## 1
Amino acid sequence: MVSKVKEFVNEQQQVLSRQARKLGRAPGKVVRTAAARSAEGIKALREPVRVVTHSGVKLTNVSHEALLGLMALQLEVVTSALSDAASQLERVAQADNVMDLVRGQADELRATRDRVVTDVKRAVSIVRDAGIGARDVATETYTKVVKRGPAARRAAKSSRARKAKRAVRKTTTKARAKTRR
């Protein structure tokens, strides 16, 4: 009876040692596979990050151009307002009677109204162009990053799978070589 118990214990010890070896190898394999997948995921982020960065530069250029246009328009508005004020004061100084003064003021008001309408149209045009530019940049970025074609996704997946299989084969071969030594 004692010998049967010892035999049973030895058998169980052998089974447990085999399982321990299998489990000892498996975590390394799992970790290697996870590391390979993580590396692929990080590599896959290179292109989207590059595209988003370039889009940021393009968007900065669009906003910079819009701001320059608006600042140039503001300069023209202020300059023309100052010129109009100076010409009105000259008319007041040169007017012989009140009728001439009123006619000059009426003409000046019509010119000012036309100038304001033109300036507003230019400001709206500048802002509209900036909006179109921002939309184009956003559309291009979305297309390049999110709407990759299915063929590109399949190629990336198959490439990832081949690399993972190759990594597993290499590590398995190395492990076998070590156990043989």
## 2
Amino acid sequence: MREFFVPFRIQMTGLLMISSCALIEIYHYGVWWGLTAAVLLIASLLLHEVGHMLMALALGVKVSEFGLCLLGAYNRRARANSRRNEILICLAGPLINFALIIPCIILPRIGFELTLCNFMLGVGNLLPIPSSDGLRILQTIWRPFPAPYPMVRPIPVNARSEQSFPEAA
């Protein structure tokens, strides 16, 4: 069970993100519903990363940590051993956000906002913009995938074989 332990880190900027999210929601909904909305929104961000993490661990990819920073939630992991696995890991987070839409819609007062946030998190992460899952999927598809073994050096051509063709007069 030790292999499923992944350290969680909240950076100082993550505390700023949490507090600003809470203050905005409290201003918008009042204390009780605002704190509830803020907690559920942060939970949506973390569940997105947990989706990536669980898929990576299920496929045997090492995950070193996950946490919160100013820009949201993140995880640090190794690259998957195949294009298919890399794409599956990238898709797991947005799929979690799309799955969270259904339970969020039934919440009173804050349900519509949380549904919209989860939808935007899912769609936004599938767009090919910097630091998104969509860009990583495109890079995985279009870039050469690194080989799991070191490249073999080409065999040098014998000097005699280069001179074996007669020169044109």
## 3
Amino acid sequence: MIAERDPAFDTSSILFWISGLLAVAVFFVGLFALVAPVPGSASFGAPVIDANNTQGIAWVRLMGVRDIGLAVMLLGLMAVKARRIAGLMLLLVVIIPIVDCATVIHALGITYHVLVHGGSAVLMVILGALLLRPSPSEAG
């Protein structure tokens, strides 16, 4: 069953550490966008040049809150050892870095930011699929 806790999803698991690193990275990216939206927008790949552009700044802050929320959700699932739900969540929200990638292409064309967002999407798909696999105790 997908909703069962996996006692093996703890600090001895490489998938736990990769999930945690992803969550912490996304959290800090979101925090950066929230507290420093002008440089945060540039690091995202769709820079808001004018700090007086309140509409642009508002969208960057929304992106920051979105990222913080996703990171906290993943950390929460890790805390309760919900490995398979975490995997499903990653697969369901992979649309976010894909759309982020398209947004950057639209704003600036092909830049290294596209690789960052695209790489995030690939990582999320691989990690999500690995987390969804049955645990060794379920296989036997």
## 4
Amino acid sequence: MNNAIQTTRLPRQSFMAYPFRIGKTGAAQTTRLGHIRNQVEQVLFTSAGERVFRPEFGFGARAFVFEPNRSQVWELVRNRLLAGIAEALAGEIDPQTLKIEVGAPAGKPEQLLVQIEYVVAALHKEEHHEFLV
């Protein structure tokens, strides 16, 4: 009898990188974790109405560039991002682990810092990303 523990691994898959680009070997590729990060960027920087077949997709960070950088705006940004990322990454991340913090970085009140944290459901791996808007 063999008492060795068998582990199951997910197959290695390649995903198209974002932004899309073509090189000598074809379309640029990325890993699953890179793909999920790319999807977060797409939600963050795509404006609602920009996609023809998904007009509700996107957060639209550009709309907040000239807004006052204060707690009321941070709460609005946080709530919109929670909804947009949870929908766009359904099945990829554990929605109960999704945490978003929004605020101004220390000493730079003119910038908006968005910190996003989640656990990738299939890998049980925690990811953390920061974006300056």
